[in-house]
Amino acid sequence: MKCRFCQTPLGNVFLDLGSAPPSNAFLRSEDLNAAESWFPLKLFTCNQCLLVQVDEVQRHDALFSSDYAYFSSYSRSWLAHAERYVAQAAERLHLGPRDLVMEIASNDGYLLQYVQARGIPCVGIEPTAGTAAAARERGIETVEQFFGEGFATEFVQARRQADLVIANNVLAHVPELNDFVAGLAIALAPKGTITVEFPHLLQLVAQRQFDTVYHEHFSYFSFRTVQRIFGAHGLRIWDVEELPTHGGSLRLWACHVDASHRETPAVAALLALESDAGMQDMAWYHDFQPLADAIKNDFLAFLLDCKRAGKQVVGYGAAAKGNTLLNYAGVRPDLLGYVVDASPHKQGRHLPGSRIPVVAEMQIRETRPDFVVVLPWNLRDEIIEQLAYIREWGGKFVTAVPHMAVS
Length: 407
Ligand SMILES: [Zn+2]
Known about the structure:
Layout: E1 12-20, E2 39-45, E3 52-54, H1 60-63, H2 76-92, E4 101-104, H3 112-117, E5 122-125, H4 129-137, E6 142-143, H5 149-158, E7 162-168, H6 177-187, E8 188-199, H7 201-206, E9 219-220, H8 223-232, E10 235-243, E11 249-256, H9 265-277, H10 288-308, E12 313-316, H11 320-329, E13 339-340, E14 358-359, H12 362-367, E15 371-374, H13 380-386, E16 396-399, E17 405-406
Parallel strand pairs: 4-5, 4-7, 5-6, 7-8, 12-13, 12-15, 13-14, 15-16
Antiparallel strand pairs: 1-2, 2-3, 3-9, 8-11, 10-11, 16-17
Helix pairs in contact: 5-6
The structure holds zinc ion (ZN).
């Protein structure tokens, strides 16, 4: 196994979560008599470029089946984030009707709808049939393809280069990292800008977010490592923002090395912040496993105490994070009766691995649970506000990461 960026052999374990099925492999009732495919979930740190990464690339078709059920538009706070970003980018880059915006992994058009509303031409690149179809229903042109060097070359020959290329929460999910970043450089117009958002490895460790580790999430980046990867493909990062999304993300603004965008002070400041935190030192990467184990053990102890006391515990949010936590902790429906999710595409199915049923929110009003575990802790405030009525019967909210909290 070699580093997916610099090809150095990998030997340093960052985190070992045992094995689990792909986090989006939801089960139908008729699947419950069949076996599931479990894959090791183990991360390594490259001692050369410090890229944290999964040790083995699963086949695309195993991870992104046609049943892949994540529709971005089901989260209100995520839509608000997308709308704010489009307003900012359109103003900062002076985008207008002569420009082209390309979004990679455009999902159901949750973001491009705001680009289109401003009269700016746009195209989405989205490999998943279900979400691509949903985007087209909104009138957003969507090409059903995986993005990479080959795709970008063909697209540019047939059409044109993009003035803004958006890649939000996709860089961490690409198995062929060099092929993807090379494609970004090809798709980008000479004076254009690429913006990329991804969870920041510094925050993952500081906030103990081990549950953001799952198979489809191949790479975990420091700012310095991404700068190095972009530099290897002729791209230069001229600004960086720290965002609260996904527990702490970075948004990069990048261009071709010879483009005129002036570098902001934020670039040097963030490099210094990472160095001060110790991220240049391998020791920083060795201390994460015991932190993850402590969270898992505390969560499991809480569920066992509730079980013995006859308390009913359920979950909210059938997202990848929840599956990592539940499968690593070995939680099954006897300890967590069901998980509610707003997406009708997940309701009626079962979570992969744990096989906990996914139901609609009305179940909470009907069964009046003592505790609701908020699995996507990044949406904690939104979910607690939405479910505030559980207080009527003394219900409480629980989050397990970064430590057990009951409120
Ligand atoms: Zn490397």
